[in-house]
Amino acid sequence: MLVLVCCSALLPLSVLVAVGTGSADIPPLDVARTLGAHLGAPWEALPPLRDSIVWNLRLPRVLLAALVGAGLAVCGTVLQAVTRNPLADPYLLGVSAGASTGAVLVLVL
Questions:
Q1: Model pTM greater than 0.70?
Q2: 38 burial class (0-12, 13-18, 19+ CB within 10 angstroms)?
Q3: Could you tell me the CA-to-CA distances from 105 to 90, 91, 94, 102 in Å, in that order?
């Protein structure tokens, strides 16, 4: 339970750092200001170029990456629960072979 609480507390911090990291580094405080300005807080946003970098480019990518990571975690948990095996992996049910077959079909066709 403690691990869940710690990870939940670290997720917003890691999102702020990830959104600020890139070829144009933006400090986490500026990222928070921009997010707050777009979400209705009475703060002023960054200059238009930096605001666009944060809001239109980086934030959707970081949120999608977090969503994909959560989906993979759920899939792994379900696979372990279904097989009742804490060491379950995609090779156990042949999911990886099916995925690679589908990928080859997409490339060929």
A1: yes
A2: middle
A3: 19, 19, 17, 5
